[in-house]
Amino acid sequence: MIIGKGKPIKNILAMIENCSKIIVAGCRGCVTVCSAGGEKEVGILSAALSLARETDGKPIEIKEVTLERQCDPEYLETIRSFVDEYEAVVSIACGAGVQFMAEKFRKIPMYPGIDTNFIGVTETQGVWTERCQACGDCKLHITGGICPISRCAKSLLNGPCGGSSKGKCEVNPEVDCGWQLIYDRLKELGKLDQLEIIIPINDWSTGRDGGPRKIIREDLTL
Amino acid sequence: MTSDSRLEKILSRGDFAVTSECGPPRGADPEVIQKKGALIKDSVDAINVTDNQTSVVRMSSFSSCVILKQMGINPVLQMVTRDRNRIAIQSDILGAAALGINNILCLSGDHQKFGDHGKAKNVYDLDSIHLIQTVKQMRDEGKFLGGDDIKGKPRFFIGAAANPFADPFEFRVVRLAKKVAAGAQFIQTQCIYNLDRFKQWMQLVRDRGLHEKVHILGGVTPMKSLGMANYMKKMVPGMDVPDNLIARLKGVPKEKQADEGIKISVETIQQLREIKGVHGVHIMAIEWEEMVPGITQEAGLLPRPKVE
Q1: Which of B108, B167, B237 has the CB atom closest to A156's CB atom?
Q2: Which domains does chain A have, with CATH numbers?
């Protein structure tokens, strides 16, 4: 899922400084699962903003909404009837949600209430780690199911750099060396010979470097 | 010969090679690199110039190599894939060849986190193995990575690094084999302090016959002090400084520690010369270049052989 993390309250307060009536909009998708932008967080953020503005002598009216998803147009329509009555929306969906809201509701500003961090997993309760950078050309079959592009700080495709030490990355001793993980996994699978393969120079055009991406499924389009 | 490199000639005829390196200055003064070059010129066969090592911005390796070249030195252009994409890399390879640089050391480079621009974006369009492949393809096939023909092929003696002390240990030789398969002709290793582990690695290298396909130059860095040894042991990832070396430096008075560090380096070089498959040494006297003539003299590496 997409993992995000709430922005500091003071940053959000600065965005809405001149507003007296806003919507705080959550999303029931990924950000609900990673406890950054679901219904619960909408309530917490709204309460915190109200309290801060109250204390500041500039009370603010906040409408709380949580959309099924902010990345699908039909769910955005559920707020169309009242959205223009407000001066701004603080969306605590991922960056895609915030942008899609901005595209669909042209008259009022959309402000991001969270930072969108990565595509990852819940490692243990309250701990999320990155797994995928959406490069558009999956190589997991060669690397034991562990991605060197997202798990190696240098995205090296042909083995660990000289900074891999005791299983950890040179960049941060808290972070596992991606290539150590690949090595260990291939060893478990009895497939260490796969390490001998030189993964060729990558085609990054399937990733971000090719410009904003688009997928069209002819069989599904109307 | 694949290039006009003095280093290639020396290694090809079976002489024990000596290389060293200069870190470029953090400024535009060419004299800094000239002084360093002059200090070690006659003690070595070629001099590496580091490419923004530890991700601290310095004068470019490329321009520093040109300065050394103008002094009659055979420079080794270190190139990291951290800061350049394949377009910039190929362009620099052509430019370096045009200016008479004929050795290149292909590296991935230290992560920018270690330097003075931790907020920078890294590139890593290629990894070090891809860089080796790139130089080889440009030289041997006369083709850019995009497939177009190159008019005027760049002729380089291609090098790479190896760290026998990083993990996973068993993968280290596989990685060397990949570098050799990609086209590496010489290897400069990480600083060697743990000779036992290095010998173990060389055994694996010989088991795969890699010592006959690539020239391995053992890395040697003299310790200036006990403090430096402790720092390298604890703070530098992928560095293996054994306790007995720390104890040896601890055992001499502070003012004698530098001398002891030099003595250890000389002994290391002598031991490296005895290891089958080690074809030279790479002396990295970090901001201590003036010690290189003494080390090479003591180790019996002087005078350096002449090359046509």
Answers
A1: B108
A2: 2-118 (3.40.50.2300), 135-209 (no CATH)
